[in-house]
Amino acid sequence: MDRPLKHIWGIILAAGSGTRIAEATQGTRKQYLEYKSAPLFWHCARTFSRVAAMQGVVFVFPPDDVKAMEKQVRTYFKSENLGVKWAVTAGGERRQDSVRNGLEALPDTCEAVLVHDAARPFVSGRVLTDLIETLQSGARGVIPAIPVTDTVKRVDNDTVTETLNRSELAAVQTPQAFETALLKEAHERAAKEGWTVTDDASMVERIAEVVTIPGESANIKITVPEDLKRLEQTKTPVPCVGWGYDVHRFGGENDRPFTLGGVPIAGGPTIVAHSDGDVLLHALTDAILGTFGGGDIGTHFPDTDPKYKGADSSVLLREVLFLANEAGAAIKHVDMTVMTQVPKLTPHAAQIAKNVCRLLGLEPHQVNFKATTEEKLGFTGQKKGIKAVATVTALREL
């Protein structure tokens, strides 16, 4: 029986202490270990966000880390907007306590939930999609499982007491998917009746049927020191190109003074703008955002916000440079062109290029500035305004 589930969220459990791996990581909790320039929990969030049905994620962190990690997650979303809603909550003493806290942080509209361990950063979107489709086909609980290939024996005090039929056994992974109401009911029963379990499925199995889908051998859990080798992959710098465009009208005597690339230009026309109207730095800022998928300048600094009225564009540029650095985008080259009929920019070109070098921390050979007219064509040719384009090349380790 197919049923539409429109409100699906994920819970990413990142509240564990990782005691079995603590010495090898010098005390860093495994959920915070970096892989390809991002912590493991963020890799999980990326995968969840790429599944169209996913509406949001709840991050569950150690209680002492919640305040700092909420700020950190907000920074990550600002530099790499995953396009899903999110929340942060504190974990509990046991895994099942952390899950319960995560359930309480879900919105009331959430119909189904996928619970995932942050220590499994290699899960694919295929697994998430299969879980959701199985729920939508009528299952109330579904988990990914892979066949057990080794012979498994029951042992008591070093003595084998039984050889189990491995054809009846499966190794279970996360995420595990459930109707939200069902999982909440299971947790309420567990709290009332004192159940202690190692995963959500073993809790739900007591009150409802749980089915399986094929898991993935690559979906390993970082658990012991030997698993850290999975994170030791050579980082490959990949070129990323961002393109920016901006335009401003010329104004009257009460509008903004003419500034280009952070350089005031005496005698130029005034600019109609909410901020300082630096068309070149605006285009450059948008281009930098483009190198790491950071959105656009209007999203970060909306002209509806009074605090950006008359804002210095070089300050906004520095904020975006910080985001680029957080996203691992290293700027290597900038090419800019301004199109205007007035004023003549040739006398100012060297100073503009020099100032952009200073703002970006680049060498002169990494910054190119050009200015041109449009042969009296269009609004720029008619001296009604000015426009600028910028192309930024960056390297990002992926």
UniProtKB/TrEMBL annotation:
Q: Where is this region: 2-C-methyl-D-erythritol 4-phosphate cytidylyltransferase?
A: 1-239
Which SUPFAM superfamilies does its entry note? IpsF-like, Nucleotide-diphospho-sugar transferases
Task: Give the pathway listed in the UniProt entry for this protein.
Answer: Isoprenoid biosynthesis; isopentenyl diphosphate biosynthesis via DXP pathway; isopentenyl diphosphate from 1-deoxy-D-xylulose 5-phosphate: step 2/6; Isoprenoid biosynthesis; isopentenyl diphosphate biosynthesis via DXP pathway; isopentenyl diphosphate from 1-deoxy-D-xylulose 5-phosphate: step 4/6
Reactions catalysed: 2-C-methyl-D-erythritol 4-phosphate + CTP + H(+) = 4-CDP-2-C-methyl-D-erythritol + diphosphate; 4-CDP-2-C-methyl-D-erythritol 2-phosphate = 2-C-methyl-D-erythritol 2,4-cyclic diphosphate + CMP
Which positions are annotated as binding 4-CDP-2-C-methyl-D-erythritol 2-phosphate?
A: 246-248, 274-275, 296-298, 301-305, 372-375, 379
Extract the ranges annotated as region (2-C-methyl-D-erythritol 2,4-cyclodiphosphate synthase): 240-398
Site described as Positions MEP for the nucleophilic attack, located at R166, K221
Alphabetically sorted, this entry's keywords are: Isoprene biosynthesis, Lyase, Metal-binding, Multifunctional enzyme, Nucleotidyltransferase, Transferase
Q: Which Pfam families match?
A: IspD, YgbB
- Where on the tree of life does the source sit, at the highest rank? Bacteria
* Site positions for Transition state stabilizer: R20, K30, H274, T373
| 2-C-methyl-D-erythritol 2,4-cyclodiphosphate synthase domain span | 241-393
Q: What does the entry list as the binding residues for a divalent metal cation?
A: D246, H248, H282
EC? Answer: 2.7.7.60, 4.6.1.12
Cofactors that this protein relies on:
a divalent metal cation
Family label:
In the C-terminal section; belongs to the IspF family. Belongs to the IspD/TarI cytidylyltransferase family. IspD subfamily.
**Protein role:** Bifunctional enzyme that catalyzes the formation of 4-diphosphocytidyl-2-C-methyl-D-erythritol from CTP and 2-C-methyl-D-erythritol 4-phosphate (MEP) (IspD), and catalyzes the conversion of 4-diphosphocytidyl-2-C-methyl-D-erythritol 2-phosphate (CDP-ME2P) to 2-C-methyl-D-erythritol 2,4-cyclodiphosphate (ME-CPP) with a corresponding release of cytidine 5-monophosphate (CMP) (IspF).
For this entry, the protein name equals: Bifunctional enzyme IspD/IspF
Q: Which organism is it from?
A: Pseudodesulfovibrio sediminis
Name of the gene this protein is made from? ispDF
